[in-house]
Amino acid sequence: MSDKIYLTDEQIEKITSVIDSLDTKERHIVEEMLERIKSGGIYETELERELAKLRSEYLISDIDRRNIEKAIFGKD
């Protein structure tokens, strides 16, 4: 399993604020999801699973999903 990362509230806000593809509503949804899963650290696979859920519910776009993964884990 990949390394996990730990994010503070400030880091979450900073990460989501620089992702241009997110509108205000999407930004709020992503921030809530990250706040919910951050307590024990976030594994890359866990983030991918959570983003896939948001994508399948049409709450974020595929571009948003990729941008979030890249911003958090440096993944393309």
| Span between termini | 18 Å
Radius of gyration (Å): 11 Å
Biggest beta-sheet profile = 2 strands, antiparallel
Total beta-strand segments: 2
Strand content: 5-15%
What's the number of structural domains?
Answer: 1
Q: How many helices in DSSP terms?
A: 4
Low-confidence segments = none
The overall average pLDDT, rounded, is 94
What overall form do the CA principal axes indicate? globular
Secondary-structure element pattern, one letter each: EHHEHH
Residue share in helices? 55-70%
Order of strands in the sheet with most strands: 1-2
Q: Structural class of the secondary elements?
A: mainly alpha
List the helices and strands and how they pair.
Blueprint: E1 4-5, H1 9-17, H2 24-37, E2 42-43, H3 44-56, H4 62-73
Antiparallel strand pairs: 1-2
Features:
76 residues; mainly alpha; 63% helix; globular
Detailed description of the structure:
With 76 residues, this protein is mainly alpha-helical. 63% of the residues lie in helices and 5% in strands. It is built from four helices and two strands; from the N terminus they run E-H-H-E-H-H. The protein has a two-stranded antiparallel sheet. The chain is globular and about 25 Å long. The mean pLDDT is 94.
